[in-house]
Specification:
Length: 123
């Protein structure tokens, strides 16, 4: 299973970005999907997750009210819409696939990871 994240870039504070993660090589509809981020010099942290059919979502504290995760199984893609971005959101953003979903916030929970896309928010 391969995951490819895209959509990162440089944006001003208050702006928006939409990240995409394309999944290939497996049955996308079997996986719960998550987004994590790793700011410079810090640990990887949970951002958001969605279950296999898009019916259930969860968010980390930093994402609540600003970010929205969604998926399109017909396109093998999961999205992260990020609004009201702040400089503290600057990080590499990773998507991940979880075959046996339970603790979505745990890095060790996920079976496959993409290579990440850089998001930089300027003040």
């Amino acid at each position: 299973v391969q995951l490819q994240a895209s959509g990162g870039g440089l944006v001003q504070s208050g702006g928006s970005l939409r990240l995409s993660c394309d999944v290939s090589g497996g049955d996308f509809s079997r996986y719960d999907m998550g987004w994590f981020r790793q700011p410079p010099g810090k640990e990887r942290e949970f951002v958001a997750a969605v279950n296999w059919n898009g019916g259930t979502t969860a968010y980390g504290d930093s994402a609540v009210g600003r970010f929205t995760i969604s998926r399109k199984n017909a396109k093998n893609t999961v999205y992260l819409q990020m609004n009201s971005l702040e400089p503290e959101d600057t990080a590499i953003y990773y998507c991940a696939a979880d075959l046996y979903g339970s603790d979505w916030a745990a890095v060790d929970e996920y079976d496959y990871w993409g290579r990440g896309t850089q998001v930089t928010v300027s003040s």
